[in-house]
Design brief:
By secondary structure, the protein is mainly alpha-helical. Helices cover about 65% and strands about 5% of the residues. The chain has 45 helices and seven strands. Strands 2-3-4-1-5 form a five-stranded parallel sheet, with helices on both faces. A two-stranded antiparallel ribbon has the order 6-7.
Length: about 950
């Protein structure tokens, strides 16, 4: 039986309130003088009732009292009555029911015999659990020994009513006893206890928060302080934020103890609720074997001790639930979960709710269990249900199925796993099993395509390509391969997937690019056609020849996609559109992937979409938003499950925020975990490019140049001509120019400028001009940089524009034109500040100060807070276009238009499109900074 109090905590010197003990001892003195007394000590668990009884017992024994003590009997016919523990019947007394009058007289006579020898104290702890008969008999003895030295002390727990509660309430109401309600610890008492336990005087804020959380309950205070001491946390002000978590843990750990001391029905109801988590009383009653009334009564008690949350249906706090389940023997918990699944199934609950119970079992080896898990995986899959179904399929029951049945089930589970797990490894495993169980290449083809598309961007991508080639060979070897239209369609599907896979395989890219050039442009009616269109768009972009052609192919690949879909073509096409400066369309495509159109969207593609969106947002100068997406992509489920692009996006953001060391750590972690990185096209070259930037920020310019040259060599080997895919050449040229080694980069710049002109987008042309400026000097350099600024102003690359403004200002300062330099540097600072590029802002500020300038007050207009996408959509809306027309114009969905317009209205503080201001299509201002001449130089 659990007795809540500090007497069970060795080595402690609790702060027991002196007034309560003094009152109890005064009653004892009155009783000793020949006037029987009764004392009722009331309070919740942990308030110090048991400790008070223990101290009173010590004092009474020391004063020569005979002390008899018992705890309240909780349950069970085999347990003796409390009164028989206090006043045992004589040897040989008959067992079983007793005559009321004889029983009273016998107990009274026994008490008188003891009283004849001296004062007698009867102490009962947890009296609320006493049987009613015992309390009635004890009360009878007290009344008939009124002139005897008899002291009765009853301790009642008020937060857990039991069989004796009504009798105790009756005794209190009739004034037959002295009432003692031990007060909670004061703040001064908590401070003394904290000093004793932790060895340090506590901070007053710490004490105040501890009192708020525990209510001054001595047991709770003791356990919270002891836990903090164990964790090595001193009771200082900076530990206040840790108190809440520690208090929740302590409260949860107490619940099993409180239940063990409570009635059996409370434990049954609590265990049932812990298994189900949340359930109506009728389901709890069916699981624990009680009637609904008993369960309802038990739930009230559970709410009083904080185990059950308020509201309906009843639900248990997760920490409490875990604590209750942790004390159950494993066989009992398994039986309970199976019973719970049957109860829920019989009640017609949804399959996912039933499967939650089965998923927790080590073995779900009955046919009906797999049927439930399979339905749940199709309806609302979770990692637990999918893995439990996989265990069943791998077990003895699954081995009894045919290969075709097992293969089909593996495909089902792969589909479900792709919607639940952080990485696609689990889904790929199921698809691999399905392929091994399927000998027919016609049946293998769709599975192999799924495998290859899901493996893109992972270390399994090369295996996906090998599987596609094997299936393609198998289809070609069929007798009717050329005559069967269905077989031809399958070949087209597999070939499109093979090309799609090769788009991100550096070693396979050259051959695949040549094969793609010979293919006709498909219609785009089916998934295979759209996949092929996306691949052709990617090849056109990597070839660097025509941004218009690559854009047209990417648009066609995206046009038929539905909101919320996460096909590989979406990512590929969004990357192509970004290279072509069509960032609005690229963002809209990724927004569709991230829209809540699906109830259970695949997690891996969503994280890839977040990573892609982060890179785009960073490129257009929205560093804070890019940081949010990058962190969401890397943190959901842990960094180990994030796509490589997520780590690269995060490293890019950290560099712009001036945290080169953290960016380097992110890249080092990626290099350790992504063994396949050097085979990829997009990730590998971005990794080399960003790594070089990290080395440059750390001062290792030669190391940076080597990484960038390595990036260039790798692109040449793979046949990549597009200058914007990891523009290493720009960083290398500007770094060499800064070192005074511009001649070394002349050939590099000449090639790069030619490629930027061929690609022809404003961003490409602007960056080419910046690179060209690095190999010339004097006014020729500033003229090229000024032209670059003007060109980049027409692109979405605000961050690149800020960098170009800074370079122009620095070069003007080097030529002695400090006034013009200050104007450019202020523009760079304003742009970099709006972009959230802290590193560039700090560098530009330092340069401005060295130019004799001082910072103006930057007043950013609300219109300037709009992103390029929001500005373009708001412009069309202000001109009177409908949402549908805007969507058709920008190749996005009406829902995306609505989302952007909502953001526009909020930022501009307008109520609708009728209040949109004119001039939204004008070039975004960096900030309203005064001209260079208007700010005088400091003396």
């Amino acid at each position: 039986m659990f007795t809540a109090g500090m007497a069970q905590r060795p080595g402690l010197t609790p702060d027991v309130p002196a007034p309560e003990l003094d009152i109890l001892l005064r009653d004892a003195a009155d009783a000793r003088a020949g006037s029987a007394r009764a004392v009722l000590v009331r309070g919740p668990a942990g308030i110090g009732r048991t400790r008070l009884l223990a101290l009173a017992r010590q004092r009474l024994i020391a004063a020569g009292w005979a002390v008899r003590q018992a705890d309240g009997t909780i349950e069970g016919p085999a347990r003796p009555r409390t009164v028989d523990v206090l006043l045992p019947p004589p040897p040989g007394a008959p067992a079983g029911p007793r005559d009321l009058h004889h029983d009273r007289q016998e107990l009274h006579g026994h008490a008188l015999e003891l009283l004849a020898a001296g004062p007698l104290a009867l102490l009962v702890d947890d009296a609320q659990w006493c049987d009613e008969t015992s309390l009635r008999r004890i009360e009878f003895i007290l009344r008939h020994a009124a002139a005897r030295p008899l002291l009765l002390v009853l301790a009642q727990r008020t937060d857990a009513p039991g069989p004796g509660t009504p009798v105790l309430a009756e005794m209190a109401a009739r004034g037959r006893c002295t009432l003692l309600d031990p007060a909670p610890l004061t703040e001064a008492g908590i401070a003394r206890l904290a000093t004793g336990i932790c060895g340090h005087p506590p901070d007053q804020r710490f004490v105040r928060r501890c009192a708020e959380l525990t209510g001054g309950n001595p047991l709770l205070v003791d356990r919270v302080l002891t836990t903090l001491r164990t964790l090595g946390i001193p009771p200082r002000a900076d530990a206040v934020h840790r108190l809440d978590a520690v208090h929740r843990g302590v409260t949860a750990s107490r619940v099993p103890e409180l239940l063990a001391a409570g009635p059996r029905r409370a434990r049954q109801a609590a265990t049932a609720l812990a298994v189900l988590g949340q359930a109506a009383p009728d389901l709890l009653a069916a699981l624990c074997g009680l009637d609904v009334g008993a369960v309802t009564c038990a739930l009230k008690g559970l709410r009083r001790i904080g185990a059950v949350l308020p509201g309906s249906p009843p639900s248990m706090r997760e920490v409490v639930r875990g604590a209750v389940l942790a004390v159950l023997p494993e066989p009992d918990l398994r039986d309970l979960r199976i019973r719970a699944a049957r109860v829920l199934s019989d009640a017609g609950r949804p399959a996912p709710e039933v499967a939650e119970q089965l998923a927790a079992l080590e073995r779900a080896d009955e046919p009906w269990m797999f049927a439930v898990l399979r339905d749940a995986a199709a309806e609302a899959p979770t990692r637990a249900t999918v893995r439990a179904a996989g265990r069943w399929l791998r077990g003895e029951a699954g081995r009894g199925l045919t290969d075709a049945e097992r293969g089909g089930l593996h495909v089902e589970l792969a589909r479900a796993a792709s919607r639940t797990v952080v990485t696609p490894a689990h889904a790929l495993w199921h698809l691999r099993q399905a392929l091994d169980l399927t000998p027919d290449p016609r049946r293998q083809a769709p599975v192999a395509v799924q495998y290859a598309m899901l493996a893109l961007g992972t270390r399994r991508a090369p295996e996906g390509m090998r599987l596609l080639e094997r299936v393609l060979d198998g289809l070609s070897g069929l007798p009717d391969a050329g005559a069967d239209p269905a077989c031809r369609d399958l070949r087209t599907t597999v070939e499109s997937a093979l090309l799609a896979s090769a788009v991100n395989d550096r070693t396979a890219l050259p051959a695949a690019s040549a094969r793609a050039a010979a293919l006709p442009v498909p219609s785009g009616h089916g998934p295979a056609d759209r996949r092929l269109l996306a691949a052709l768009g990617a090849f056109a972009a990597l070839d660097g020849g025509s941004a218009a052609r690559a854009t047209a192919l990417a648009r066609r690949a995206l046009r038929a996609d539905e909101p919320g879909t996460a096909d590989w073509g979406v990512f590929c096409s969004s990357a192509v559109l970004t290279l072509a400066d069509r960032v609005d369309e690229a963002l809209a495509a990724l927004d569709r992937v991230l829209s809540p159109a699906q109830d259970h969207p695949p997690l891996w593609p969503r994280r890839a979409a977040l990573a892609g969106r982060s890179l785009i947002l960073h490129g257009i100068g929205d560093v804070p938003a890019a940081a949010r997406d990058a962190r969401a992509a890397t943190e959901a489920g842990g960094p180990a499950g994030a796509p490589p692009l997520a780590h690269l996006a995060l490293a890019s953001v950290l560099l712009s925020q001036g945290e080169a060391a953290r960016a380097g750590a992110v890249l080092d972690g990626l290099a350790r975990t992504a063994g396949h990185l050097d085979r990829t096209v997009w990730e590998w070259h971005l990794y080399l490019y960003v790594s070089g930037r990290v080395h440059r920020e750390r001062g290792d310019l030669e190391g940076a140049l080597e990484l960038w040259r390595r990036c260039g060599r790798s692109q040449e080997e793979a046949g990549i001509v597009n200058p914007l895919l990891a523009p290493w050449w720009l960083s290398a040229a500007t770094t060499l120019g800064r070192l005074g080694r511009g001649a070394e980069s002349a050939g590099l710049v000449e090639t790069a400028v030619a490629r930027t002109r061929a690609w022809g987008t404003p961003r490409a042309l602007g960056l080419g001009l910046v690179a060209a400026a690095s190999v010339v000097g004097g006014r020729a350099r500033t003229d090229l940089l000024a032209e670059a600024v003007e060109t980049l102003s027409g692109s979405p690359a605000r961050l690149e524009l800020a960098r170009a403004e800074y370079q122009l200002g620095r070069e003007l300062l080097a030529l002695g034109d400090a006034r013009a330099a200050r104007g450019r540097l202020r523009q760079a600072i304003a742009l970099a500040t709006r972009c959230g590029a802290h590193a560039l802002t700090a560098t530009a500020r330092d340069t401005l100060v060295s130019a004799g300038g001082r910072m103006p007050q930057l007043a950013v207009a609300p219109v300037d807070s709009l992103t390029p996408s929001e500005r373009r959509i708001a412009t069309l809306a202000q001109r009177g276009h409908s949402n549908k027309k805007i969507a058709e114009t920008l190749f996005i969905t009406p829902r995306t238009v609505e989302m952007h317009l909502t953001n526009v209205y909020r930022k501009l503080d307008v109520r609708g499109r009728a209040e949109l201001p004119r001039g939204l299509d004008a070039r975004p201002r960096a900030a309203t900074a005064p001209p260079a001449d208007s700010v005088p130089s400091p003396p």
